[in-house]
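haha ok so turns out i had the wrong file open the whole time. this is the CORRECT one, sorry everyone. sequence first:
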Amino acid sequence: MRTGYQDIKDHILHQIRSNVWTPGTLLPGEIDLAESFGCARATVSRAMRELVDEGILERKRKAGTRVKSSPTRRAQFAIPIIRTEIEDTGAPYRYDLVERHVLPAPNWLRSRLDLPESASVLHLKCMHYQGNTPYQFEDRWINLAAVPQAESYAFKDIGPNEWLVQEVPFTDGNLEFSATNATEDIAAFLGAPVNAALFTVERTTWLADVSVTFARLYFARDYKMTTRL
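then structure:
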């Protein structure tokens, strides 16, 4: 039976979890492991690379691969479709487009997304509701050089997040989490007191080296985010 990279990965994890390979242990080299498993070196390399990415192993040039002394786990985030997130609670979903403007990219956005002075962007403000209860206020900017079809799309019936996930791939992203004080406008949309601390996510996505979108997402009070380690 052919040995795949997952088989090698499972073997390494078993050795670690059974304390055969304790923290700091130097693992056999890729060539030795490939010979013992009867597989290509590239197969072993992929298994080890994934375990390095997952924080289980650490690699140092000329020093080999070791079991990490303090293994780390990475939280996994998927870009959620707000419609699905709300409907999964059993509540009906409702979406409203608040504002839609095509305009030259402001200086702060050009700096953040590495856009040229001539860049044109689509600015959208949207509300998402869980039934009749405010759920999320979405303030989004779309780079029209990367997504030109967005300029002619109305976004009256579907939110930009849902549309972008369906229409445009992305290769990289950045997430920032914070608590921000609600401005008068955002407080009114989310039914919160002015200056109330709101859970806020800033999300930037890229397609290769081209920025696609920047969004600032404000959630109603009592919102909870759950992820897996």
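Residues 5-67 form a domain with the Arc Repressor Mutant, subunit A fold (CATH 1.10.10.10).
again sry for the mixup
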